[in-house]
Amino acid sequence: FLRVPRERFVPEDVRTSAYEDVPLPIGHGQTISAPSMIAIMLEEAALTRGEKVLEVGTGSGYTTALLAEITGPESIVSIERLLELEPFGRENLHAAGYEVRIVRGDGTLGFPQEAPYDCILATAGAPKIPKAWKEQTKVGGRIIAPVGRSRLSQVLVTARRVGPEKWEITEGTPCAFVPLVGEQGWRRE
Ligand code: SAH
């Protein structure tokens, strides 16, 4: 967290709030997550250097940069659904010196081209954990995602794949993320 300059991942008009522990608007109805929320997710993820990660919801690229600090940039793929937002995340990361693979697409389908993953981490709220994510997680891997029946309130779920067909699911802190929109998520915004 000390190494990643959050002010480089927020739009100009909210830059003076960059070091408040709150989500901030990044345009197109989306938000950069609050640092404390990301910290909880990263603790749950318990990543080590070189582990393969799929991040769903690049947004500003801030979480992507934090992930890159932990695993190294080459083992991360981050997917963003919005055509208008994808360049924002990509450019922020580039300007801050993180060379991470960013793709545009529907992350509810995972990203099979680089599967399987040690961790799939989502920063948008899903109605339930997409089947595609389960298929693309290694045995020993985990999925960290906000899950809830309402679009505005979720609980943070950690799903660990402890065997080919065996999952351990734990429900953590209540949270409020923007909706995960796509084929295996919410159907529209
Ligand atoms: N971690 C980001 C959070 C951005 S908000 C940050 O700190 O900046 C969540 C993002 O998820 C939004 O950019 C939204 O467009 C994106 N998103 C929503 N549904 C998605 C999907 N199906 N695939 C990929 N990205 C998605």
Offer a few descriptive terms.
9 strands; 7-stranded mixed sheet; binds S-adenosyl-L-homocysteine; alpha/beta
The number of helical runs is: 4
Biggest β-sheet, characterized?
A: 7 strands, mixed
Q: What share of residues is helical?
A: 10-25%
What oligomerization state is this entry in? single chain
Spatially, the strands of the biggest sheet line up as 5-4-3-6-7-8-9
Beta-strand content: 25-35%
Distance between the termini: 31 Å
Ligands, ions, cofactors: S-adenosyl-L-homocysteine
Low-confidence runs (pLDDT<50, min 5 residues)? none
Mean pLDDT: 97
Radius of gyration: 15 Å
What is the ordering of alpha helices and beta strands?
EEHEHEHEEHEEE
Sheet/helix structural class: alpha/beta
Explain how this protein is built.
This protein is of the alpha/beta class and 189 residues long. It is built from 4 helices and 9 strands; from the N terminus they run E-E-H-E-H-E-H-E-E-H-E-E-E. The strands form 2 sheets. A 7-stranded mixed sheet has the order 5-4-3-6-7-8-9. The longest helix is centred in the first third of the chain and has 11 residues, at 35-45. The model has no long low-confidence stretch (mean pLDDT 97). The chain binds S-adenosyl-L-homocysteine (SAH). The site of S-adenosyl-L-homocysteine has 26 residues, from strand 2, helix 2 and strand 4.
